[in-house]
Write a structure and sequence with these properties.
A: mainly alpha; Rna Polymerase Sigma Factor, Chain: A; Arc Repressor Mutant, subunit A; B: 153 residues; mainly alpha; 2 domains
Chain lengths: 208, 153
């Protein structure tokens, strides 16, 4: 059973002890606003980042993120601690994003497997300038990754963000999304291939 | 799920091969690139708006609890009152039925006396009431007895 605030650890490197984390969860169950505030501090940016990438409209993303935390606050007594708080929050966020997509009736655009995706074992990138560490700090390339994420289907995007951005394990993503672990892996592979393809096109365009 | 299976099948990879590809150097590079994407921070206005909404939710819940605290004894009292009312009105209903029974007896006797009157009037004619007939008979008898008694003596 994992109750750690992974986001807090990842974002600030601050190792909160287990007892404190349990106290916060207990406080949230009692609807203590102070405890919930601590939870918000730890997760608000992470959840917002996820929702922001799932929902293109920033205002809508803000509203959905608020809804995530309001729902969490209302139903914290139902949190059974079988998964981590982080996974639970991302599950609420994911469900709200899916609901919103259904409401808008914007069918997700699937990435065609024919032609665009090459099952390239080594993921060779022809441009020698491609350095992932530099990509992260280069705003332009980070924008290209964002654009790549924005153009992939919702199914691939959610798996990529949950695994590569939020570090959730395959099993938790499988439970969260409601598909087998193998499907999660295949979606992750396709999502990464899509990003790679997008970056390749971007770099080719830059060179030419 | 069916579509995902199709996707998985189209890859024509075993899970082990897929694991190997995902853990390959280029796979890890993509992962790091995605992981290092800058996080967007929510604004202070967003947080204060959320705090306001949470506060509203808390006050609504408190109001609901207070309402329940007031209403539940009131409901108890109401139930007790309803029971008392039911018990209280049960007895008068029985009295009423008794009264009805008495009234029906009275009615029967009235009807009976009316029928007697009719019969008497048939026999004695108009102008003489049955009481008078009875009284006259008795007084006559008494008189006769007295008469006989005194005369014979």
């Amino acid at each position: 059973m994992e109750l750690c605030f992974g986001a807090a650890r990842l974002s600030s490197g601050d190792h909160t002890d287990h007892a404190r984390e349990l106290a916060i969860v207990e406080g949230c169950r009692r609807k203590d606003i102070e405890s919930f505030g601590k939870l918000l501090d730890a997760y608000q940016n992470r959840v917002f980042g996820f929702v922001r990438r799932m929902v293109p409209n920033p205002e809508e993303a803000s509203d959905i993120t608020q809804e995530v935390f309001i729902r969490a606050f209302q139903s914290f007594h139902r949190f059974d601690a079988r998964s981590s708080v982080r996974t639970w929050l991302f599950r609420i966020a994911y469900n709200l994003c899916v609901d919103r997509a259904r409401k808008v009736d914007r069918s997700p655009t699937e990435v065609s497997l024919q032609g665009t995706v090459e099952i390239d074992e080594t993921f060779d990138v022809p441009d020698g300038r491609w350095q992932p560490d530099q990509l992260a700090i280069d705003a332009e390339l980070a924008g290209a990754i964002e654009a790549a994420i924005g153009t992939m289907s919702e199914k691939l995007r959610s798996v990529l963000l949950l695994h590569d951005k939020e570090d959730l394990p395959y099993e938790e993503i499988a439970r969260l999304v409601g598909v087998p672990v193998g499907t999660v892996k295949s979606r992750l592979f396709l999502a990464r291939a899509h990003v790679q393809q997008h970056l390749r096109n971007y770099l080719h365009a830059e060179v030419s | 799920m069916e579509r995902s299976r199709t996707e998985f099948d189209e890859l024509k990879l075993t899970e082990q091969e897929l694991d190997r590809l995902l853990e390959s150097e280029s796979g890890i590079q993509i992962r790091n690139a995605v992981h290092d994407m800058p996080d967007e921070a929510v604004s202070m206005a967003w947080r204060s708006d959320l705090n306001e909404k949470l506060g509203m939710h808390i006050s609504k819940e408190q109001r609901r609890r207070r309402f329940a605290w007031i209403v539940s004894p009131a409901l108890g009292l109401g139930l007790a009152g309803a029971l008392a009312f039911a018990v209280f009105f049960k007895t008068p209903t029985m009295t009423q039925s008794r009264q009805t029974a008495q009234q029906s007896k009275l009615e029967e006797s009235l009807v009976a006396s009316y029928e007697d009157n009719l019969r008497y009037s048939d026999i004695t004619g108009v102008g003489l009431s049955p009481d008078e007939v009875v009284n006259r008979r008795t007084t006559q008898a008494t008189y006769d007895i007295i008469e006989v008694g005194f005369d014979s003596l």
